[in-house]
Amino acid sequence: TQLLEQSPQFLSIQEGENLTVYCNSSSVFSSLQWYRQEPGEGPVLLVTVVTGGEVKKLKRLTFQFGDARKDSSLHITAAQPGDTGLYLCAGWDSSYKLIFGSGTRLLVRP
Amino acid sequence: NAGVMQNPRHLVRRRGQEARLRCSPMKGHSHVYWYRQLPEEGLKFMVYLQKENIIDESGMPKERFSAEFPKEGPSILRIQQVVRGDSAAYFCASSPPEVSGRGTQYFGPGTRLLVL
């Protein structure tokens, strides 16, 4: 069974600080996705990384896929209160199932 | 183009009652997925359906749970004789037709089920 572990589970930081969250697995994934979920809503796709070593940027968010395609990281520069939410990584197993990590809950204090 | 729609958004049931959760996929999408999310956890796959077909139900409990996606109308996730442990947020996602079934999934806002 493929598992995705995310760390840290919770993160509370001050506005303007930088942060990194991690998504790790012992299994190889063909691609990994990052979602953000706000309270009372469904997850919204932020990015898909496909190639080992790939780096993608989305404004102040930088996503990296590990060379071995077993891990990924999300770095946020100068965090803002609007970044508050649950960040989930996900990848497909060998079939059609999207496997989700347990998430990192981020709180950015003004 | 409206997104994935789920209703009701909140559902309260007493133990032993039935819960019916509905999902209308995005226009043009023929693949529907159901996930369950417990508090402070990620989403867990339950079932993958195409029109009139269950493709993969390996994540769905064998007892009391069923899902359908008829030719006309929304997809339905049905939970019979609910128990307190069924309390969770249930999310539906849809994707456009893809050969491998690994198309980008678009999530609805979820149904929060509370069993008293």
Structure write-up:
The complex is a heterodimer of chains A (110) and B (116). Chain A has 110 residues and is mainly β. Chain A contains no helices and eleven strands. Chain A has strands at residues 5-7, 10-14, 19-24, 32-37, 44-49, 55-58, 61-65, 71-76, 85-92, 98-100, 104-109. In chain A, strands 2, 4, 5, 9, 10 and 11 form a six-stranded mixed beta sheet that branches. A five-stranded antiparallel beta sheet of chain A has the order 1-3-8-7-6, with no helix packed on it. In chain A, strand 4 (32-37) and strand 5 (44-49) form a beta hairpin. The mean pLDDT of chain A is 93. Chain B has 116 residues and is mostly beta strands. Chain B has strands at 5-7, 10-13, 19-24, 31-37, 43-50, 53-56, 65-68, 75-79, 88-95, 106-107, 111-115. In chain B, strands 2, 4, 5, 6, 9, 10 and 11 form a seven-stranded mixed beta sheet that branches. In chain B, strands 1-3-8-7 form a four-stranded antiparallel beta sheet, with no helix packed on it. In chain B, a hairpin with a 2-residue loop joins strand 5 (43-50) and strand 6. Chain B is globular. The model of chain B has no long low-confidence stretch (mean pLDDT 92). The A-B interface holds A 4, 6, 35, 40-45, 48, 88, 90, 92, 95-103, 105 and B 4, 33, 35, 40-45, 48, 55-56, 58-59, 91, 93, 100-102, 104-110, 112.
